[in-house]
Amino acid sequence: MGIMQIFTLLGALGMFLYGMNLMSSGLQKAAGDRLRGFLSAMTSNPFKGVMTGLGITSIIQSSSATTVMVVSFVNAGLLTLTQAIGVIMGANIGTTVTAWMVSWLGFKADISILAVPMMLFGFLFSNSKKDNRKNIGELIVGFSLLFLGLSFMKESVPDLRQTPEVLEFVTSWAAHGFGSVLLFLAFGTVLTLVLQSSSATMAITLIMLSMGWIPFDMACAMVLGENIGTTITANIAASVGNTQAKRAAMSHTIFNVFGVMWALALFRPFLALVGYITENLFGLPNPAAEGFSVTDSNTVEGTAALYGLSMLHTLFNTINTLLLVWFTKLIAKAVSYIIRTPENQEKEVFKLKYISAGPLATPELSVEQAFEEIIHFAQISKTGAGYAKEAVNEADSDKFEGLREKLVKYEEISDRIEYEIAAFLNGVSAEEISESTSLKIKAMYKIIGELESLGDSGDTISRILSRKNIHKKHFDAESIKNLNAMADAVSTAYDVMIENLAAAHKGELVDITKAYNAEERINTLRNNFRDAVIEEIDNGGKNYQTSVYYMDIMNTYERMGDYMINVSQDLERGFVHK
């Protein structure tokens, strides 16, 4: 096998993988947030979860994308652990569609003949000004590259029949009974870990089988190994997520490993069942029969082997799901026992809630995640403002110190959340994004900056109050009443801002009149209270230094109103289609 042949083979594999990713990405973009809504809505019981996972994975042709999405939603609290387990089970069945597609279109129908002409249509669609047509173009190009890559792989793989000594060496690996089964199972696992795509490993297995390199039973062992290797993707995604996300990923591993264990224990009877179904369903020779061999995918035996391997893949995941779907709650308990809740749970409360499991497969879905995180950020900011109001009213020095520490902590939390969302958006921006998505991301950068400034404001109020206490100054009842009125106006503005954020997220934001009214209310109160305190200072009724602290807090509240109206204006510019 020459150097050029090796590079051609590797390049063909790369084309196959790139085509698979491009096709999956195009499908997900075309589906948009409808995919996300479908996933979160259709999981009320384990069986619906299974059907949801099956349907989504069959459509987007990537169980990895589905499981990463599920881990993200568990991390966000949109799915419970039990619901997630059902979806992951369904995703395992859905991914078997790829094997059938490759077996039929890639080997028997040889759709690669149409792949190049199809790329013309893909190119034309991708140059459309409409985002949806661009996504369809990406899907077509990805579909074409997938089957072109598969065709090049088949052509660049050497025919070992021309070198009998090499063929004998390869086939000797299959001559060690059950030891060979374990060997090929390990090979399938490692290959999937390296390629990060069970679909690519499945395609390679089908090629090796169709070329007569390995017998049918060893190809089946590789497929079982692929089911273990594919779980690594979800575990990588969950490694930076919260406890529930890690548990969802672990449940995927437990599910597949258990399935491989029973399939190994019943390996020969299971293969016999696969052979019987293939023989009777398609009218082909039994691929599991003794003495069965494959020399070419274009022969009847070749067809039987390809269909038999695809049948094993489908049957394995279907039986495994039917066995374990009754025990989803038990699996949830098991992974909860294996992955314990951290003792210091408070730290986890303030981790990113929606995006800490990593970006989803497409920018559009990732923007949805980031926006949910921004709404969560706004809610955290409002909680901090509540502590600021408590600090203004607190006369006890020890209790005030406790509130001051909370406000300092919330300021640090705001800084961290702003940084992490910005880093996430940087990653999304690096991808190919539509113009509308670009406008949204620009608006989101500005919004998180305003929210971070709101977080700073609580700490600013705590420092003003600390200076007041150090100088042993006290606000009278009238001043406290006025400060509470400002705090309540700011709280109302928070509610309006969060309402606008939620409406923009749903695509229902029409105007921001209520936000302008809330901000005007804050400005009017600040102006009235400022004029009144200046008049009292002139008349000698107020201590000047105390009044300075009083007005500093008033001005901080007024600036908070400015930050919040800026958020609503950014939403109007980036999310309202006029």
Q: How does this structure look, described?
A:
- The chain has 578 residues and is mainly alpha-helical.
- The protein folds into two domains: 70-92 and 161-341, no CATH class; 362-575, Phosphate transport system protein phou homolog 2, domain 2 (Methane Monooxygenase Hydroxylase, Chain G, domain 1), CATH 1.20.58.220.
- It has 24 helices and no strands.
- It has helices at residues 3-31, 33-41, 46-60, 63-76, 81-94, 96-108, 112-126, 131-156, 164-172, 178-195, 198-210, 216-229, 232-238, 243-265, 267-282, 300-324, 328-338, 345-349, 363-393, 397-429, 435-470, 477-506, 513-538, 544-575.
- α4 packs parallel to α13.
- The longest helix has 36 residues, at 435-470.
- Residues 344-349 have low confidence and may be disordered.
Cα separation of the termini: 61 Å
How much beta, percentage-wise? under 5%
- Helices and strands, in N-to-C order? HHHHHHHHHHHHHHHHHHHHHHHH
CATH topology heading of the largest domain: Methane Monooxygenase Hydroxylase, Chain G, domain 1
Shape: elongated
Number of domains in the coordinates? 2
Main sheet specs: none
Give the helix proportion (percent range). over 70%
Query: How confident overall, as mean pLDDT?
Result: 81
Number of E-state strands: 0
Summarize the structure.
The chain has helices at residues 3-31, 33-41, 46-60, 63-76, 81-94, 96-108, 112-126, 131-156, 164-172, 178-195, 198-210, 216-229, 232-238, 243-265, 267-282, 300-324, 328-338, 345-349, 363-393, 397-429, 435-470, 477-506, 513-538, 544-575.
